[in-house]
Amino acid sequence: MNDIPVKKTSDRSFLIVSISLTTAIFNFIWWLYLNINGNLENLFSQGQQSELSLLYTISLSVSIFIGLNKIISTHWQLIPISVALAVAYYIGNQQNWKIMLLLLLFPVFLILLPLKKLHLISIYGLLDISFMAGFVLPSVLLYLQKGRLTKDFLNSLLLLTLTFTFFLAGIFISSKIQKFLIGLVSDTALIVICSINDHNLWFFGNIILIVLTWLFLNKLTLRQKYRLPFFSLIMLFSICLAMFQINA
């Protein structure tokens, strides 16, 4: 870690904790969500392909952290992205070109994310990463694990996509007006989708969490390095409540 250009020792410690936490949260969300409708009896049942898929998602989450948190240079992002690209090519070569293309989309987006000329730290980048993290990646992961996709699972991905949009808005959007409007729209859409299922204790708990996040937490002035771990953790709680609601 001494070779990583972090200014203070405390920042090095924070880097280790926050990158581990964020990586664990994103992977927990992606892999746990595959079984939201009982789609899989056993995760990681495909041997080497499951292990490579896990390596791919870990590489993506590390790259997301480096790209969105400004603790270290984004040049370090090239290491996990290279791993993700190599794994995507290997898995895609074993499957078909469509799977390879879908797997390559996310790391390519993360390569472009730090480029200021593209202005991806904006509503456009937010929508892109939400769609890939909430729809494309879970679809590919389930297909690689099960060999097919179910209609119920694909329908459920709207909930996951909107959850990423809502909780990552505070990271991608700097304008207070845009943040307010995006939060209002995605907040309302999340509540409507959640209300389709049973109105149990988990439902009301999630609604309270979503509303409080919109009313208060998005208004907090957090330093850049705290935002992703903070909102990722709240996002994890929301997704767990949604899954408990559906499976209750």
Short overview:
This protein is mainly α and 248 residues long. Helices cover 75% and strands 0% of the residues.
Structure description:
The chain is mainly α. Helix content is 75%, strand content 0%. The protein has nine helices and no strands. The chain has helices spanning 9-33, 48-68, 78-94, 97-112, 123-146, 151-172, 176-196, 201-215, 224-247. Helix 1 (9-33) runs parallel beside helix 9, helix 5 (123-146) runs antiparallel to helix 6 (151-172) and helix 8 (201-215) packs antiparallel against helix 9 (224-247). It starts with 8 loop residues before the first helix and ends with a helix. The model is unreliable at 1-9 (pLDDT under 50).
Number of strands: 0
Q: What percentage of the residues does DSSP assign to strands (E)?
A: under 5%
Please state the overall shape, judged from the principal axes of the Cα atoms.
globular
Which residues sit in consecutive blocks of at least 5 with pLDDT less than 50?
1-9
How far is it from the N-terminal to the C-terminal residue, by CA? 44 Å
Biggest sheet layout: none
Helical content class: over 70%
- Enumerate how many helices there are, as a single number: 9
Order of helices and strands: HHHHHHHHH
Round the Cα radius of gyration to an integer and report it.
Answer: 18 Å
Q: Please tell me the overall pLDDT.
A: 87
Counting helices, strands and paired strands, the structural category is mainly alpha
